[in-house]
Amino acid sequence: MTSELDALLQRREALLEKWAATREQITRLEAEAAALLGKRWELFEEEIAAEPGHRKAIERSMLAEYAAASRISKGSMEFAFSDARMLGQFPAVRDAFSKGRIGPSHVRHVLAESQPVRNAVDLGDVAPETLGLYEQGVLEVAERDTAMRTKAHARQVAAALAGVIVIERLKKAEEERSVTVRSVGDGLALLQAVLPEYLAVAIHDRLTAMARHLSGRSDDREGILPPTEPTEAEWAAWEAEFQAHERREHALVDADTDTDADADTDTDGGADAESVDGGAPAGGAFLDDDPYPFGLPPELDLSFWTDPRVDPDSPCITRLPVCPRTFDQLRADLLADLLLTSAPSEAHGTALAGIRASIQVTVAATTLHGDDDRPAELDGHGPLHPDIARSLAGGSTGWTRLFLTSTGIITETDTYTATEPMRRFLRARDQHCRFPGCRMPVHRSELDHNLDWALGGPTSVGNLAHLCKTHRALKHPDVPDAARWTAGQQPDQSLRWVSPTGRIHPDPVPRRVMFVPSSSEPSVARWESPAAQQAGSPF
């Protein structure tokens, strides 16, 4: 059996190695294709230098030719040429791309999120070398993490290096908020809302919490409404039925006893020949502790008598049809219910005060105090306008002060409210599920003992990390050995995941972007919504 399992693991490992090598080869070819587009653009510039009055026509012809040759759309070709041109400003990114260390998606996000830094350089707000700092800071994550995590990190780095430009873009972008509706056919329509990111994230989070609450309750899934208290008439009817049934059962017992007694006497009323001393069997007497000398009476059937508040046939319970809605359908229905059954009012407060969802904001203490206007951070998403961060901070008491090293690693936390410091520290440190590449936020994840507590693993920050349900299940003891993962926390707080085939997949601690520290361990403040501090209903 062991040899068969070893052979299976070897086949799995061989397939994985071959797949990974193929993916790396594809990435290198993608980099080579991008380099060819870059050279073609250089040739295009030579062409328009000779024919400056026909730039648009020459460019359209070039794009059409490449789109036709590759069988992709003109818009995709425009993006490909744009990325290829911009790669010339990022030699380190181009080198990592050509060696297969990062993929096309990584490159696209690194280039797209660099715009604030490039604008700041063009305007003279920052030195030209700042673009190199951005490149180095983003590559540190891009070469070891997923494209989406790279995107979030790139936003943070850009906000730290070009905060003034980011704030201006946030102000301008907020003016673009809108709500539109467009028919998509078959009685459906697309309702699209363009909102500030912190509001959109909070709305989606609240809808998700409500949908999860409904889909996770068995009584909600079965459509059972909470039972009502029976009326006096209903109680009296049930009591009368019970007493009548009890009398019938006792009557049956008495009838059986009389029948047995009659069978033990002769026809002239004398004693049976086989019994003496008042009916005792010959050769012995009745046992004094036998309460049923003529056999056990029939048991009372009380199965019909149940609490009317839980009896399925009770008129006190109303049952609704089983709800077949999916998770997305629940979110859509809840959104419609909330929008159509509530009215804007000062009594309900502003949009900021109305947030009852789990979002996290990190802001420098100096920015919170008003000493500067550096961008804050909407954890896991990107920069946040400092005025919004201050407004959110003013309505919450859920504060945690974070102490960081000079490289942005959290060393400890200090809380001002009566909370569990260990949990606050881990939420601040992890930010999301600690499986490589997973971005499930901490309030949708669970704390997990990396070394099982049952096996002696301590309950300490050095042995705890947030994992989503999907990835936590990978290391469950019930999972077969051929499919079980293991995870261990290293001294630098990174997680070392080991797959069933023995491959090692590290997940480093998410770094915090520094807010231009004035000391080796700067202090920043972090806000959590009231809902994240209170237990109970997710609403």
Tell me about this structure.
- By secondary structure, this protein is of the alpha+beta class.
- It has 17 helices and 15 strands.
- The protein has helices at 2-50, 55-70, 74-86, 91-98, 104-112, 115-123, 130-142, 147-161, 163-174, 197-215, 218-222, 232-263, 327-340, 365-369, 386-394, 421-430, 469-472, and strands at residues 178-185, 188-194, 275-276, 280-281, 360-364, 376-378, 382-384, 399-404, 410-415, 446-449, 464-467, 486-489, 495-498, 504-507, 523-528.
- The strands form 5 sheets. Strands 7-6-5-15-8-9 form a 6-stranded antiparallel sheet, with helices on both faces.
- Helix 2 packs across helix 3 and helix 5 (104-112) packs parallel to helix 8.
- It is globular and about 120 Å long.
- Mean pLDDT is 74; it is low at 217-227, 266-287, 414-418, 516-527 and 529-539.
